[in-house]
Amino acid sequence: MSSNLSNITSDLLYSVKKKPTTLWYVGFILSIAAFGLGVYFTYTTVYLGIGEWGLDRTVGWGYAIVNFVWWIGIGHAGTFISAILLLFRQRWRNSINRLAETMTIIAILCAAFFPFIHLGRVLHSFYIFPYLNTRNLWVNFNSPLLWDVFAITTYFLVSLIFWYVGMLPDLGLLRDKAKRKIGQKLYGIFSLGWMGSVKQWSRHHKVSLLLAGIATPLVVSVHSIVSMDFATSIVPGWHSTIFPPYFVAGAILSGFAVVLTLVIFARKSLKIEKYITLNHIESMNKIIIVTGSIVAFAYITEMFFGFYADEEYEHFMLINRMTGRYAYAYWMMMAFNFLVPQLFWIKKLRRNLTITFIFSILINVGMWLERFVIVVSSLEKDFITSNWTEYAPTKTDIGLFVGTLGFFFMLFLLFIRFIPIVSVSEIKTKEE
Amino acid sequence: MRKQKYISIKLHSEEKLFETLEVLFEKNILVKDVFSPYPIEKVCKYIRKTKSSIPWMGFVFGMIGAALAFWLQYWIYADAYPLQYGGKPQIPYPTMLPAVFESGILLSAFAMIFTFLIEAKLRPGNFRKVFEKDITDNCFVILIEKNKGYSIDEFNNLLQTEKIKEIIF
């Protein structure tokens, strides 16, 4: 048994102990390049202002809010896998929870960047927090945008705590396995003196369960609040009561799609196929079917509400989405988010890695397009026809989005160099 | 954890761990602690348990967080910057809920994590000497206090007679 445990350790510490592969270097250089592009366009935005973006008279929220909601949605799978699947005692989550939690942390950072830069005067961004001030001015607690500040800050900090607590046993292992002094020192600092005593394990178990308990309503509340940014307005296509559950299901769908993309890449490149098996991929694909079906149901409900309501603006909005300038985005969204997940009912497709990888990317594209359709098609043609515009993103818009993608992959690749992507202690528990 | 105060028994499997614990339990030898590379729930029955304050701290600070957020909003609406607009209620209770909920969760999480760190004796810069490097990897260690009415030789003989081969002092 002792050798079995050692084998698990050496298998899972492979990426940390061995020199990075060429694939890792290629990915890292590409992501740094993309991140650099983002830094440049961040500089131009701060220096010249958000006039550099493609925003116009009616589309005051463009790529920034689309990217914000997309990244926040991706960030949902991490806590869903860590918290909700932990409470439901789904053991298969042990192999993927670390990866999903890491993805969550980085995705929230990417998401938070967009409202931050959208403020224009980023140095004054602390105004969004309620603090005692001599002007006696306070933030507007009636606004869902402020609720977002509370929800996302809480979600980020609770996810960060959850992620870090989950890593403590492995940080202790890394400290004891590190050959170089610097490694021993750094892992020693971050492992906080973890020894694996009974008391530490029992407290660790307790705090993990309790954090999972409080993180579960957070998963639901964060994207519900994000959806209220839209739903509490009077814009046709936004003013809808189905938005909170629709957004939560969509968020979990997109989050799982990204987890699948990363898992398929990681299991192959880090040689951990033994720990992330086809059964894990299949289980995630089943969740894709469930959340994809909820999203599909929401699309149909939205259509029904729009046509059933005797309201010319709602009718116009729906017909404009289906046949207007961005009809391609609407139908691609329908194909990728509605039809593609349904193909996973076929077991062969669910267990096929290439198909799963392609589908996961299609769902990601579909979910981005969903936010684009919601934001742009509803705002572009407002109540006054003389206001109507044609929204088009600028190179700054695209550059900032590419920059966050670069930031995401850069941090992810750095993470897998220093921390095992699969929780070693949890795999050992499962094996025993 | 000074060497002279404890005897440590190193074992290489979970089965051996339980066999040894059972022997020690039968002989009324008090086990100070057990170290393992992964959590083993059943070990708790051989060790004197201490109650955890994590749930209570989480609850109490969760309530404090929620109350603070409620009080802040109430004070802002009623006292610091009262607004009258559109015939809307001056203190809109339903819109206070998100901030109250999120603040409660946040403070509860912080309280639980700090209680956990204190109870598990974890802190940055805690470089306690790891007496057996493999305890986080592949071995199990039982820690017994010395000078509890038996000598090391007696203790060694006791465990040897129980045919537990993998004992390392």
Task: Please give a structural write-up.
The complex is a heterodimer of chains A (432) and B (169). In chain A, 73% of the residues lie in helices and 0% in strands. In chain A, helix 5 crosses helix 10. With 432 residues, chain A is mainly alpha-helical. In chain B, strands 1-3-2 form a three-stranded antiparallel beta sheet, with helices on one face. Chain B is mainly alpha-helical and 169 residues long. Chain B is rod-shaped, with a radius of gyration of 26 Å. Helix content of chain B is 46%, strand content 10%. At the A-B interface, helix 1, helix 7, helix 8, helix 9 and helix 17 of A face strand 2, helix 2 and helix 3 of B.
Estimated share of beta-strand residues of chain A? under 5%
**Rounded radius of gyration of chain A (Å):** 23 Å
Quaternary status? heterodimer
The outline of chain A comes out as globular
Residue share in helix of chain B:
40-55%
Report the biggest beta sheet of chain B as strand number plus sense, adding barrel if it closes: 3 strands, antiparallel
Overall pLDDT score of chain B:
82
**Radius of gyration of chain B from CA coordinates:** 26 Å
Strand tally of chain B: 3
How much of the sequence of chain B is in beta strands? 5-15%
Strand order of the largest sheet of chain B: 1-3-2
**Which segments of chain B are poorly predicted (pLDDT under 50) over 5 or more consecutive residues?**
none
State the helical fraction of chain A. Answer: over 70%
Q: H/E series of chain B, N to C?
A: EHEHHEH
Count up the helices of chain B.
4
Distance between the termini of chain B: 15 Å
- Major sheet characteristics of chain A: none
Shape of chain B: rod-shaped
Estimated structural class of chain B: mainly alpha
Structural class of chain A, please?
Answer: mainly alpha
Q: Report the end-to-end length of chain A measured between terminal Cα atoms.
A: 9 Å
